[in-house]
Amino acid sequence: MRSDALIQIRSMTKRYETRAKETVLALTDVNLDIGKTEFLTVVGPSGCGKTTLLRILSGLESHTEGTLLIDGTVPSGPRPDISMVFQQATLLPWRTVLQNVLLPRQLQKTMSPQVVERARALLDMAGLSEFENKYPSELSGGMQQRASICRALICDPKILLMDEPFGALDAMTRETMNLELMRIWSAQKKAVIFITHSIPEAVFLGDRVLVMTPRPGRISRIIDVNIPRPRDRSSFANPVFNRICDEIREIFDTQGSGATNQENSNVKMAVSF
């Protein structure tokens, strides 16, 4: 147990029922504490329940068994202090960048001059202040994802959930986004739960790496990343970095799942940093 735990999960299980009335066990016996400003990365084989875990934390789904406490309370649905960033930026094409960032506050009917000022401050932090009046189609993929992160932060959430947010980006843009996300998190200090299929990305970003088993998803191992912050490209040359990456690959090999093609390609990408 962590004394600074913002999220507490005990014996969590999630079962689905298919249209054919068959029961599918997605998650089983998950026990986890997540700190108030922790950056937790999650890796595991496809279909092991990583996204299901995020959806439960976000309030979009409920768990079947076990206990979930967020900031000491049992969640009953989506919360305004939890935001989620998806693999695609999902910006509305008819709204400008600034209007997209402001959308959650407009939906909550909590607009004010101070909110607009915060949106502009977030865009400035993300290097997008010159693009606030541009439309999504006028931005690169990396810029669109930065805008979506600003939108997720506009409500000043305690928890930021990220479901493979850089998976659709090319290798060079992904490298830049990892560095940008590290800088934004250092400034905002939220609890971040970040799903990725890239082992190097998980180690580079995380305070800890949660390694999951094949379905039904369990926690196979939680590995502390003892690499000093702030991190930059030189962190990839740290012997600890390579040791942790190798340890995670060995876990996958032992489980019989191995590393995915995406993970292997990202290993090569990391070596070039």
Distance linking N and C termini = 36 Å
Mean pLDDT: 90
Q: How would you classify the helix and strand content by structural class?
A: alpha/beta
What kind of sheet is the major sheet? 6 strands, mixed
Helix-strand string: EEEHEEHHHEHEHEEHH
The strands making up the biggest β-sheet line up spatially as: 5-6-7-3-8-9
Could you name the ranges where pLDDT drops below 50 across 5 or more consecutive residues? Answer: 258-273
**Number of extended strands:** 9
Q: Which percent bin holds the helix content?
A: 25-40%
Describe the protein's architecture and organization:
- The structure is a single chain.
- With 273 residues, the chain is α/β, with parallel strands linked by helices.
- It has eight helices and nine strands.
- Strands 5-6-7-3-8-9 form a six-stranded mixed sheet, with helices on both faces. A three-stranded antiparallel sheet has the order 2-1-4, covered by helices on one side.
- A hairpin with a 5-residue loop joins strand 1 (5-17) and strand 2.
- Helix 2 (97-107) packs parallel to helix 4.
- The longest helix has 18 residues, at 171-188.
- The protein is globular, with a radius of gyration of 19 Å.
- It starts with a strand and ends with a helix.
